[in-house]
Amino acid sequence: MARPKIAAGGVGQAQVTQLTNGKWRARARMRNDSGELVQLRAEGATEDAAREELLSRAKTMTTHTKAIITAESTVQEAAEAWLPTVKVRAENGTLSWSTYENYETTVRLTRAAERHRGTPGQGKRVSVP
Predict the structure, then answer these.
(1) If you ran DSSP here, which 8-state letter would residue 53 be given?
(2) Of 30, 77, 81, 113, which residue has the fewest beta carbons closer than 10 angstroms?
(3) What is the pTM of this model?
């Protein structure tokens, strides 16, 4: 029988084993936000500690966003959905705060320039093949 498919941001069933040194190791597969399967491993002094560390590592690899960008989405809608995911990565330590601040500034200034100039096509849907 095939394994159940893991949804984006989801963690599969953890396998926990006791090592010869007395520590516990937890292993599980997860699917990150981009859809890639990733093998996670964590160790702890107890079985529960190993599971907890495994879940903690999984949280740093996902943004838990449910925003859906479609072919009919505007660039502004895409930026508004994307920027919070970048902030979560900065909060988790998988992206530097200065990088997040640069992205946030670029999105904010681009929006302001579009409003100021009345850029043709502002708010129009962008078709993605």
Answers:
(1) H
(2) 113
(3) 0.51
